[in-house]
Write a structure and sequence with these properties.
single chain; 72 residues; mainly alpha; 3 helices; 0% strand; elongated
């Protein structure tokens, strides 16, 4: 996951999603905690870091013999 301090819910579970939204609106402490952690997490996210992680994954895939191109 990209964000660790977030309320997570199945994309298709609209009832659970609504309940989480209502919880954030009703509970000031929860709302505050999520805001503080979101601010910290968003500061550490950069496009450079994301690109570097993608390159590492691509390098692993390229060097993995299961994905090597075979000549016929």
């Amino acid at each position: 996951e990209v964000l660790h301090h977030a309320l997570k819910v199945d994309f298709w579970d609209v009832d659970a999603m609504a309940n989480k939204i209502i919880a954030v609106l009703k509970h000031d402490a929860l709302s505050h905690t999520l805001r503080v952690h979101a601010d910290v997490e968003l500061r550490r996210l950069t496009w450079d870091e994301s690109a570097q992680k993608c390159l590492v994954i691509y390098d692993k895939l390229i060097s993995d013999s299961r994905f090597a191109k075979t000549s016929k």
